[in-house]
From TrEMBL:
InterPro entries named in the record: DUF58, vWFA_dom_sf
Lineage of origin: Bacteria, Pseudomonadati, Bacteroidota, Sphingobacteriia, Sphingobacteriales
PANTHER family per record: BLL2464 PROTEIN, DUF58 DOMAIN-CONTAINING PROTEIN
Superkingdom classification of source: Bacteria
Coiled-coil region(s): none
Domain DUF58 residue range list: 62-258
One Pfam family, short name: DUF58
This protein's name: DUF58 domain-containing protein
Length: 317
């Protein structure tokens, strides 16, 4: 009787390596209407954004005093009769905004010290954004990439497209535990942004999900170029150890060299914390003039909980 050697298949929890079932569950959360607010605010993960154009569009926005040139069909006669002055209704016109998601699944994203690894948190952001876009009736596509290659999908309006996109995320994500060398993703991210810029035209929502480690001037220029005719949003995934290192003697390594680290030595710990805060502020300052919002999500909490918290703060403003 011939014997066959069985290959051991390593199974990882979904917080470490995601799977399609784990990502598809976000469809229910989005469809239930409990995850994201119904009010069409300009916010990250929104598949359709409010247009800056004013007209007789889809959504009523406000009532204001009549201005010469206003369409008389928009006069609010009830308010006019009550106040004795002429008031007009203002509408906010919506335009279709395909969503293009750039999802980083490179080796640098395979890190997490608490609950999730960055790559899984990024996958959750991509899934929520894709399902929300389809729910709003818009098209969704994007790029999923790592050092092994990329998957490119032009936006389509179908659940099958979302499932295919998420399967690509799962496939790229599943490669990460096999990688033994961590590489910086600067050139890789730049290459994906270049492909994005060449593929899309205008009026897109471009969502870039990464840890943005070691971005350079070329990265920033691509993002600025894309934002000229599109809404660009950045989702920065970070880990607790990116913010601060624990007290005690540590040995840190980049895979080639090692150093002995103590937070209390020459105020290294305080400087480490300050550098993270400064990095966040620098990114905000860098992209704010171009109306590119950046949201910071951590690997300790579930993405859906962080979204609810983030949206709650926006709605209170």
């Amino acid at each position: 009787m011939l014997g066959f050697r069985k290959h051991k298949v390593t199974s990882y929890p979904p917080e470490i390596v995601t799977n399609l079932k784990d990502l598809m569950r976000f469809e229910f959360l989005v469809q239930s209407g409990n995850l994201l607010p119904k009010h069409p605010i300009y916010s990250v993960l929104a598949g359709r954004h409010e247009s800056k154009l004013r007209g007789r569009g889809l959504d009523f926005e406000e009532v204001r005093q009549y201005v010469a040139g206003d369409d008389i069909r928009n006069i609010d006669w009830r308010v006019t009769a009550r106040t004795g002055e002429t008031y007009s209704k203002v509408f906010n016109e919506e335009k279709e905004r395909p969503t293009f998601i750039v999802a980083d699944q490179s080796t640098g994203m395979f890190f997490g010290s608490q609950r999730f690894v960055k790559a899984v948190s990024a996958a959750h952001v991509a899934a929520i954004s894709a399902f929300y876009t389809i729910k709003r009736g818009d098209r969704v596509g994007g790029i999923v990439f790592n050092e092994e290659g990329m998957d490119f999908m032009m936006p389509k309006r179908s659940k099958a497209q979302v499932q295919h996109f998420l399967q690509c995320v799962v496939n790229r994500n599943g490669i990460l535990p096999q990688r033994k060398k961590i590489e910086t993703n600067t050139k890789l991210l730049n290459s994906m942004l270049q492909k994005t810029q060449a593929a899309i035209t205008h009026d897109y929502v471009v969502l870039v999900v990464s840890d943005f480690s070691n971005i350079d001037d070329e990265t920033k220029q691509y993002l600025r170029n894309i934002s000229q005719h599109n809404d660009v949003m950045l989702v920065h995934i970070y880990d607790q150890l990116d913010q601060a290192l624990p007290d005690g003697k540590l040995v840190l390594s980049d895979g080639k060299k090692q150093i002995s680290w103590r937070n209390n030595k020459r105020s290294w710990g305080k400087k480490y914390v300050s550098s993270f805060v400064e990095m966040q502020q620098h990114l905000r300052d860098e992209f704010s003039p171009y109306r590119i919002p950046i949201v910071f999500f951590n690997t300790e909490e579930a993405i859906e909980d962080q979204i609810m918290h983030h949206m709650g703060k926006i709605l209170k403003k």
